[in-house]
Design goal:
The protein is mostly helical and 39 residues long. The chain is 67% helix and 10% strand. It is built from one helix and two strands. It has one helix spanning 13-38, and strands at residues 2-3, 6-7. It has a two-stranded antiparallel sheet with strand order 1-2. The radius of gyration is 15 Å and the shape is elongated.
């Protein structure tokens, strides 16, 4: 993935990229649930 002149390579190659995506999805779900519990 390139942004301008810098190339961003996901840590651990394809698997690392997949894990990062999964982690972000899980984190957003957990944050949403926590916010709903607080409100």
């Amino acid at each position: 993935m390139r942004i301008g002149n810098t190339e961003i390579r996901p840590v651990g190659g394809g698997l690392g990229c997949l894990l990062m995506i999964l982690f972000s999805i899980v984190a957003s779900v957990v944050l949403t649930v926590l916010l709903n519990l607080l409100v």
